[in-house]
Amino acid sequence: MNNKVFLNNKICNIEEAKISIFDRGFLFSDGVYELIPFFNKKPFLFEEHYKRLENSLKMLDLDNPYSKDEWLDKIKMLLNYCEYDNFSLYIQITRGEPLSYNDGIFREHAAIKKYKTSVSMFFSKINDLSESFIRCETAITLEDKRWMQCDIKSISLLYNSYAKTLASKKGAYEAILFRNGVLTEGCSSNVFIVKNKKIITPKLSNLILHGITRSYIINEIIKKNKFEIVIEDINEEDLFSSDEVFITNSTQGVLPIIKINNKKINKGTCGEISKKLHQLYLKKIN
User: Fold this and answer.
1) Helix or strand holding residue 4 (H, E)
2) Do residues 258 and 268 lie in contact, with contact meaning Cβ atoms separated by under 8 Å?
3) CA angle, corner 242, sides to 224 and 142, nearest 5?
4) pLDDT digits (tens, 9 = 90+) for 76-115
5) Is 68 tagged catalytic?
6) Is 185 annotated as catalytic?
7) Quick one: CA dihedral 86, 72, 188, 238, positive or negative?
8) Distance between CA atoms of 175 and 186, rounded to whole angstroms?
9) Which pTM value belongs to this model?
10) Looking at 62, 185, 216, 244, which residue is catalytic?
11) Going from the N-terminus, what domains does the chain have, and what CATH number goes with each?
12) Residue 152 pLDDT more than 70?
């Protein structure tokens, strides 16, 4: 398959997609991103993802390079080349490179020049979504050492990447993060536990990315199907003594975690509530 990339109003082959080394996204991670899932070729929760993208831009004082209608046109232009049924669309916006290099200063921390915004998009296939089969994964725990503005969907993901790599080297799928003894989230997911049939997840703050799938599952699946949901702090003892643990994100929906570090959750098997939420979610997207 000849996958394509959208880069600054042009469609190009992956090998031909290039940016300047003076782009502030490259030099300083000065940019934001959004990931929008498509199921059966249709965008899922597009409005919510687009609103979060706008909010992230505002929080970094970045202008939205396109109107909403222009975004829709450009996304459609790229996805004309997509042959997948289930896939994620990755959007990245950086402050870009300076319009002029006449002052001879090629790298400075303060964004005080005029810049040419850089926009890129590409799509990736989503696998393993089946009502008859539910993946179960393992995780490790780590101290959350990220910056204090995790509610911005920033492209600065160094610690997320480091922690996820460390988890992978230990044979785990995810790293669950704790800050001062309180659970925040996973490297690329929001975290839920189940205790005595009560579903518990951390409250939103600047220390947690406001997950679109998290919100949807709470409001459209958990509440509407009469499960009990509590939003409160979770400590390590809560996590390891829970009956079930699952994580949510845009590409996997509900993903049970059956082992954390060396501790099995629910005797190392998928819990009934996690399984039911997984099935209910897949019915919504299919």
Assistant:
1) strand 4-7
2) yes
3) 110
4) 999 999 999 999 999 999 999 999 999 999 999 999 999 9
5) no
6) yes
7) negative
8) 6
9) 0.95
10) 185
11) 4-125 (3.30.470.10), 137-285 (3.20.10.10)
12) yes
